[in-house]
């Protein structure tokens, strides 16, 4: 059994990652921590709760986390995920979110409690994790595994020609996490771009006709539409965040290379993730370089939605 915390900025593919984690029998989803990213944190928080409710998993706790990058500001564009983060299915957040505990404190507390048994899957800017290891540096050596959807080591980025979104939104946080010594598996665009969900797949959800499948089909259609405008040559939309959940549970879905990864902060290559050949330490990051996309897609559809 994989004890998991999902750190998300829900987000359409984050919602699909939550659904996959909730339905995989091998996962015990302890909680969901949220951050800003594709939309402000109040949206990620509200959206995560609504997704869990739709899945009949409202008992899983959700925590509100970071509101902005460590050193930068964030402006939102609803182009890929919608202004509400979920393809305009939920609309504006009515009231600011109230969460019992801050996401960063929850992460620290759960890492101390479960130690090597805990897997954290982060599918958002890495601000929450960076804040957690800054506040309690000893947790770096305690946590079992951190699987991060982020970066593009061998292929182009999706925000600039170098940088992937989760890294470039808070590059200082990403650098801190990737240089911390945490046991990381980096699931970047190099592999996630190979996992494509198609219009025909979403049509099957629609046919199911349950409230949850209709909700999921509606927001995923928004994402498919955005993808088809941005990448007319692709036959679908990438399941970036669900693949990170898949890799956390089935590490043999991917081939990895151990690497010290650094995040560029220079203006002309901001957010680029490259191998740091000059770091003396043994690598603690495994970079995913190949994926068995067919096997992953089969598992995803067997469980979602
Ligand atoms: C990442 O950015 C967001 O758009 C997705 O949810 C994913 O986490 C892909 O670059
Ligand atoms: Ca995300």
TrEMBL record:
Gene3D superfamilies: Ribonucleoside hydrolase-like. Residues 4-298 form the Inosine/uridine-preferring nucleoside hydrolase domain. Keywords: Glycosidase, Hydrolase. InterPro entries: Inosine/uridine_hydrolase_dom (IPR001910), IUNH (IPR023186), Ribo_hydro-like (IPR036452). GO terms for molecular function: hydrolase activity. PANTHER family: INOSINE-URIDINE PREFERRING NUCLEOSIDE HYDROLASE (PTHR12304), URIDINE NUCLEOSIDASE (PTHR12304:SF4). This is Nucleoside hydrolase. It comes from Gordoniibacillus kamchatkensis.
């Amino acid at each position: 059994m994989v004890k998991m915390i999902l750190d998300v900025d829900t987000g359409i593919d984050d919602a699909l990652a939550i659904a996959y984690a909730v339905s995989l029998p091998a996962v015990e989803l302890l909680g969901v921590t949220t951050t800003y990213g594709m939309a402000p944190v109040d949206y990620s928080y509200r959206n995560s709760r609504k997704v869990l409710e739709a899945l009949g998993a409202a008992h899983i706790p959700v925590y509100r986390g970071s509101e902005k990058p460590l050193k930068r500001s964030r402006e939102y564009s609803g182009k890929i995920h919608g202004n509400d983060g979920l393809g305009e299915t939920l609309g504006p957040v009515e009231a600011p979110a109230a969460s019992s505990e801050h996401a960063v404190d929850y992460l620290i507390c759960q890492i101390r409690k479960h130690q090597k048994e805990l897997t954290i899957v982060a599918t958002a800017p890495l601000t929450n994790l960076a804040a957690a290891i800054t506040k309690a540096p000893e947790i770096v050596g305690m946590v079992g595994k951190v699987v991060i959807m982020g970066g593009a080591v061998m292929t182009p980025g999706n925000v600039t020609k170098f940088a992937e979104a989760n890294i470039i939104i808070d590059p200082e946080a990403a650098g801190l996490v990737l240089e911390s010594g945490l046991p990381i598996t980096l699931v970047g665009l190099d592999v996630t771009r190979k996992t494509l969900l198609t219009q025909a797949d979403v049509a099957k959800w629609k046919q199911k006709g349950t409230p949850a499948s209709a909700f999921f089909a509606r927001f995923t259609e928004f994402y498919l539409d955005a993808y088809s405008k941005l990448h007319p040559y692709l036959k679908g939309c990438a399941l970036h965040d669900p693949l990170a959940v898949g890799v956390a549970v089935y590490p043999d879905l991917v081939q990895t290379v151990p690497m010290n990864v650094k995040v560029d902060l220079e203006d002309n290559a901001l957010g680029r993730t490259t191998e740091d050949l000059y770091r003396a330490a043994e690598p603690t990051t495994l970079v995913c370089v190949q994926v068995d996309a067919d096997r992953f897609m089969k598992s995803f559809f067997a469980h979602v939605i």
